[in-house]
Amino acid sequence: MNVSIVGTGYVGLSTGVGFSVKGNKVICVDILEDKLNRINRGDSPIYEPGLEEKLKDSLSRGLFKATTDLEKAVMFTDVTFVSVGTPSKEDGSIDLKFIEEVSRQIGRILKKKEGYHVVVVKSTVVPGTTEDVVLRNIEKESGKKAGEHFGICMNPEFLREGRAMEDFLKPDRIVIGELDKRSGDTVAKLYDNFDTKILRTNIKVAEMIKYTANSFLATKISFSNEIGNMCKKMGIDVYDVMAGVGLDKRISPLFLWAGAGFGGSCFPKDVQALVSKAKTLGTDPHLLEKTLSVNQRQKTMLVDMLENRMDVKGKRVAVLGLAFKPGSDDVREAPSIEIIRKLKEKGASVVVYDPKAAGNMKMFFPNIAYAQTSRDAINGADACLIVTEWSEFRNLTDYDFSKMKEKVIIEGRKALDPNKVHGFEGICW
To answer: Are residues 276 and 323 in the same domain?
Structure first.
């Protein structure tokens, strides 16, 4: 099929490349010409394992291209996926300005287009948005009727950053929220060659599935951190506890990872959006609010632990790991941001290292020291905080940390190998 994707962020670009890998012709649309030039050269503007290689392959086979021309993209494709950002407002609700503008533009284009076209919302939006905003805007601008002249679906993404290509090509489920059968059939055809379960439901259910899944996973993490903080006081390793808990098939071992808290573009934003939505409905989302407050506290606990060991004012503190998770260069809502900010407020001299995310962190902290390697960051430091569990940190040894002025190491992610490094303290163990 011929597919257009509006938006070339983590989700949009991964989705576009993924569909091209499956043999579809894909046009990705964005407004940033420099970014699109990079994409058309096969140079991915974001780091995702396997993405750049698959992008180059799809470009070479003529199955993928990027453009600023939304009208041409819609005119020459059968299905358009809307994958633009839905950032948070100050009150936690989602900002729909990009969704609103894109849906109006698509409506004006469909007014000129003959034949049936399906618009699919891929962006994460609260229940009611696809029908009340996207559908209505397209109908108003096109003069056409949804379900008759064009189709509408909601197809939430479940991509993990750092594993986006793997998750897209081998998903554990595909959810299609459809306005009507014809709309759903068109989108389902795109997934004919995917070996997984396809759930077809109505649009609002599909929108809610995404928020519920992310909120539940975030809650598992905050629950694990609450237990981890208790275990720390009792001299118990919470990872040993969760290894036993996770054997229960009703629970599973996934997302029982106690540590320095969750970040990224999804969990914090989506839980907050659901909290905001609940309040507009007159319900009290106590558990979800607690999930957020536990996480916020957890983010800076490493600094609190460090202050129990030393006065950080004037001390050189190395922070290893900036991305919110390994395998990604994304620092949005990353615990490292709060940690660095608090260290600077306390008067520490901060040096950081991350194999992929340093460039993105410079937008937040342009004036701190950025080391080229983890060993460079450690050398001469008074203390070291491990914030992201990059696999390369498991190669660090006592010899590497012997280059520190004081060997104060606090672990937030179980990244170090205890057989190679001794004398460090864990956040929850």
So the answer is: no
